[in-house]
Amino acid sequence: MKLSQRIWLTPASIAALLVAIGIASADTLDRIGQEKAIRIAYREDAPPFSYKDKIGEPSGFMVDLCRAVAKHLADQRSLPSLNVVYVPVTAADRFEAIAQQKADLLCEPTSVTLSRREQVDFSIPTFLDGAGLMVRSDGPKNLRDLAGKKVGVLAGTTTEEALRNTLKEAGIAGDVVAAKTHGEGVPAHLRRQGRAEPDLADALCDIWLAGLDDSSGHDPRSRD
Question: What pTM, to 2 d.p., does this model score?
Answer without folding.
Answer: 0.67
